[in-house]
Amino acid sequence: MAELTTSSSSNTSRRANLFVTIVAVMFVMVPFLFWRDTWFGRELTDDEIRQYLADTESPRKAQHVLLQISERMAAGDTSTKQWYPEVVELAGHSLAELRVTVAWLMGQDRESQPFHDTLLILLEDDEPLVRRNAALSLAGFADPAGRLVLQSMLRPYTVTTPHAGKLQNRLEPDDSASHETLLSRVEQPGADEPAEVRSPVPGIVRERLLRDGSDVAVGDELIVLDPDPDHVFQSLRALFLVGTEEDIEDVRRFLRPRDDMPAGVAQQARLTVDEIRRRAAGS
Residues 20-53: pLDDT tens digits? Predict the structure, then answer.
């Protein structure tokens, strides 16, 4: 990286300070994607961490240990590096919630090549929240590989059904949905209970695409969700670091204050557009 000279303007200095601040904040920023159904307050010893990491059949223990490792990393404890191989291994765990957490944790050490390499793999994960956390973490590595995922966080998300049968919608337009919120039920012939369609991402219901009682097949589109405000904000901050002119069209939709977004979103959108244009002009 080229050295900044003392003849640079105060605006450049402010941009540099802002860049450092955003990078620092980004890696304590994903509680909306972090698996926090249970709070683990007891501090684990090193021996317990090794034991928990070895117990791959206990997701709760893995959750506990990942939280402990992340807290130590945030405190600057370099001894956590001894467990990096086990953390990388957990990136392949069958439980999506653990992969979500691993993708978040890996963004806290932007000098780890194994973490970087693993995040590139997680960017292709089947679960959208894993992909989103991987893209956010990669931005901290100054790696734009997750740009398309970051773009998707700014766009509506269409939920499809993994079940066939007769549809019963549960939510109405403008209802909020969290991750795993029950969106619809699908009554299947011969089944005692209807199958459930849950939200793979948080968002706000924009439109129900099919009426109650409609016959649906696997893969049919059911509901369009507008993007979640927190996900929009985090995507904008990540694109501040790695976005290109191709991303400006998506970012521009948030330049003006909107009723469905916090006030800070428009400000961040402006900062992101300005930074993208500054980089483009200097390239």
Answer: 455 544 444 444 344 333 445 567 888 888 888 8
**232-281 pLDDT, tens digit each:** 999 999 999 999 999 999 999 999 998 889 989 999 999 999 999 999 99
Task: Give the residue carrying structure tokens 């893995």.
Answer: 62
Cα angle, residue 53 at apex, residues 131 and 82 outer, rounded to 5°: 90
Alpha carbon distance, N-terminus to C-terminus of the chain: 13
Give the helix ranges, DSSP H, for the chain.
Answer: 10-26, 46-54, 59-74, 84-90, 96-106, 113-122, 128-140, 147-152, 229-242, 248-252, 263-282
Tokens 């893969």 sit on residue: 219
**Which two structure tokens, joined as six digits, stand for 174?**
């403008």
Structure tokens at 65: 């240990």
Residue 146 to residue 137: CA distance in whole angstroms: 9
Residue 154 near residue 250 (C-beta atoms within 8 A):
yes
CATH of domain 157-227: 2.40.50.100
Separation of alpha carbons 190 and 202, rounded Å: 32
Break the chain into its structural domains and give their ranges.
10-142, 157-227
**Closest to 76 measured CA to CA, from 33, 40, 119, 111:** 111
Tokens of 178: 């969290």
- Cα 179 to Cα 143, 199, 204: the distances in Å are 27, 5, 11
